[in-house]
Write a structure and sequence with these properties.
Structural class: alpha+beta
CATH topology: YefM-like fold
CATH class: Alpha Beta
Largest sheet: 3 strands, mixed
Order of helices and strands: EHHEEH
Number of domains: 1
Radius of gyration: 21 Å
Number of strands: 3
CATH architecture: 3-Layer(aba) Sandwich
Helix content: 25-40%
Length: 77
């Protein structure tokens, strides 16, 4: 399924496209004269669940503009 479709192509097959979004989980952007006008995304009961998976994964940097040394890169250890 393409992720962009014109309104004229979307209208006659609306149910088909909605079922594809539901089945695949991929968003669909509907365009009018080449410009995006709608984004169709699958419904999620708990949108905060996605954010919960990120808890305690953010690192704190006291000086984010300070350059880091070679020893700070895990790949070089």
């Amino acid at each position: 399924m393409e992720n962009r479709i014109s309104k004229s192509k979307f209208k006659p097959k609306t149910i088909e496209f909605l079922r594809q979004v539901e089945r695949t989980g991929q968003e669909l952007i509907v365009t009018h004269r080449g410009k995006p006008v709608l984004k169709i995304v699958p419904y999620r009961e708990e949108p905060m669940e996605l954010l919960k998976s990120l808890r305690n994964t953010v690192l704190k940097y006291d000086d984010p503009t300070e350059p880091i040394g070679w020893e700070d890169w895990d790949i070089f250890k």
